[in-house]
Amino acid sequence: MTAGPGEVFDLIRYGRARTRGDLQEVTGLSRMTVAQRVDALLAAALIREAGTDRPSGGRRPTRLEFNIEHSIVVAATVDTTHSHIALTDLAGRIIDDDSIDLAVIDGPEKVLHGIAESIESLLERTDTPPSRVSGIGISIPGPVDPRTSRPSQPPIMPGWDAYPIAEYLRDALPVSVPVLVENDANAMALGEHSVGFTDCSSLALVKISTGIGTGIVINGRVYQGIDGGAGDIGHVRLGDHPDVVCQCGARGCLAAVASGRAIAQKLTELGIEASSGRDVGELLAKGNVEAMRLTHEAGRRIGEVMATVVCLINPGVLLIGGALASSSLLSGVRETLYPMSLPRATRNLDVRLATMGDKAGIIGMTRVVVDEVFASKAINARLNEPEPVG
Ligand SMILES: [Zn+2]
């Protein structure tokens, strides 16, 4: 293998090599070349020395690790009724954050203006110079076209189709860094994977909030599909609800029957006020019996569709996340998922509630940014660049 500084950095970042000796062994590079690569990465503060590995006497090799304080990331998650904005270190640990009520139906300008203002006030509040920011990541509750990084006909985000989110934020903010856009379920799946399931080579997360979406992580990477549509299960048509009109305009979609929005509508008909997935989540937390019954029933419908997903990708872990994630939802999903799937597809499947809540999306978006900004190719380009003069 040809191991430039970027490849050496990758080995250290993912913990596949922890010392100079490991690097020599893994790459086959000479001791001198390894020393040069490591020195360049240390000088750029991309890695740091972290004490010793073996306290067993004799020579103690210095342990090398990714310097998660090299710079910071701005990560934001846009939900239908509110947005969460955070400054994080490169491991996704929150330095400071803000939650603001912003409705996606008010359109991209209003929401992105609010987010840009919040980012500026977070930078100010934490005394962070804009030059410390290495990238911005933002997740949205709709599909993202992987070629353009723009929303791709998002059913619950009127006015956002093909909107240049990255360009808007770059223009609005005093930072000139990559802005990456990702689907919210994908970001949550990646966040949960990065923290609790790094050993799982195939993980799916279904997010049930106002809408329904699935994020799929295969071998540590989000699987987006050709048009960013992978996992967008909310608009799969159910056979037995031909009359129910969905927000996307079609009839009989899973989301029209089993989403937070659909449950909120049914609750409203019963005289219980609710309009979003978040409202339903609050009722569930209070133990509202009708909300629990309807959520359990929704879980059963989601389990039917997830049976196909599980048979298709055979994941090791299926996480149930989003505002409606609750024991009512989980038990409903299990009731239909298992009998409708082949035993082989579920015998090693762990179906459980996601544990990180809203933070999963923040950590996932940090990871998306770090994977891009600190990719081995980007590191090689950065370290081969002559230092700017003056
Ligand atoms: Zn639909």
UniProtKB/TrEMBL annotation:
Gene Ontology molecular function, alphabetical: kinase activity
InterPro entries: ATPase_NBD (IPR043129), ROK (IPR000600), ROK_cs (IPR049874), WH-like_DNA-bd_sf (IPR036388), WH_DNA-bd_sf (IPR036390)
Signal peptide boundaries: none
Transmembrane segments: none
Region named Disordered: 126-152
Family in the record: Belongs to the ROK (NagC/XylR) family.
Name of the featured protein: Putative NBD/HSP70 family sugar kinase
Native organism: Arthrobacter pigmenti
